[in-house]
Amino acid sequence: MLIQKLEEQLHSREEEGRLIEPAPPQKTAHMTDFGSNDSLSFSSSGVLRTAFLKELGRHPNFTLGSRSTRIFEGTSQYLADLEDHLARFHGAESALFFNSGFDANVALWSTVPQPGDVVLYDQYVHASIHEGMRRGRAETRMFPHNDCAGLRQCLLDLRQKRPGVAEGSQSVFIALESVYSMDADSPPIQRMIQLVKEILPRGNGVLTMDEAHSNGLLGPDGSGYVSALGLQKEFPIRLHTCGKALGSTGGVILASTTIRSYIINYAKNIIFSTGPSFPVLAAVKAGYDLLASQEGETRRAQLQYNIAYFQEKLTTHPCWSMVKQHGVLSIPTEVTWASESFHAPIIPLNTRQGHAKSLARRLHQANYWVNPVHQPLVPKGKERVRLVLHADNTEAEIDEVLGLIMEWSMEQVGRTRISEDGWPQVACSI
Ligand SMILES: Cc1ncc(COP(=O)(O)O)c(C=O)c1O
What we know:
Strand order of the largest sheet: 2-8-7-6-5-3-4
Strand content: 5-15%
Low-confidence stretches: 415-420, 424-430
CATH class of the largest domain: Alpha Beta
CATH topology of the largest domain: Aspartate Aminotransferase, domain 2
Helix content: 40-55%
CATH superfamily of the largest domain: Type I PLP-dependent aspartate aminotransferase-like (Major domain)
Structural class: alpha/beta
Number of domains: 2
Mean pLDDT: 94
Bound molecules: pyridoxal-5'-phosphate
């Protein structure tokens, strides 16, 4: 009976085109990577493997497993040293390492906000923040994505209706991400800080930043978005992950020693879970050493070059306006692109409803890996192909990917005539 119920639900997901089917490794292994979060190509290039093996060589007698939860003997000296290193690297008082960023968010949001506190979260924050809030004790409220007017209204409303908030005895957490993982845009951070200070002058606004998609990519040695802007003091809680630009796995909460100690005392996924094993920690240390090296600097610069190359070529293509006008494809970040000094490697190629799989298939057929994304990963009607640029993508590969995207797009527009050099020649007079 149970199996039948499960099958029915899977079947209806399939009917709606929403069934999640992990990409088969035999398919992705031989494709050029335009999909993964390994944006500095640390993992795919092998540079991280080399650094990792060196790190193992420095600790030939390592104990593989942590053997326990970290509240017993599972906190090795290596883990303690790594956490000190991460705190210094990111300019924080202390650091707390987790097996994943998801775990870190769940631990943070399920414990730190107290009963009576409120969490205001951006509409597009990651599922792990939602999961943590769901298990937490504070009231939660959403404000529209990157919307200062919406945030202001929420803050004013809370101050007016809750004496504890106005008096400063109840905290208001503001949950932001440095780069939103599906839309690749960043919050108007200075204005948001200013609003929180103005409306909550007693200092009970707690700004938090999830840096999953900026860790390693900007700031001194790749230390992140908040560090790049010198705003460490404005964000008492930050969260970085190691599974994206760092190329390995893990998550780290950067906060005061009190918050760190509180999470260790109250987070069930710390107390009742085995601590991280040595290879995970050594890979993270190797990744951070790479970030701070010339190799890291060069890869960051190459990645920014590749992103600019892709964006420039796509948006100046003679048919791009037509493709947008027909609603075939658009990039939400196009409007803000020129004014930003840092560009995220994620390019959301928004398609019409039901078309993302077709575009992804076209690129897969040519051996380029990208990910089509639909509900439940993004809201209904926000379907897209999530393309990610990497430091090791070559200009020739990017050109070919662009050619395929435009070829597919013009087929959708219905006026395709492919030129000999592979770029579509169409009447673009609009
Ligand atoms: C904003 C954000 N936070 C947290 C996570 C979870 O990190 P991890 O993959 O290390 O579990 C992700 C992963 O996609 C993310 O995008």
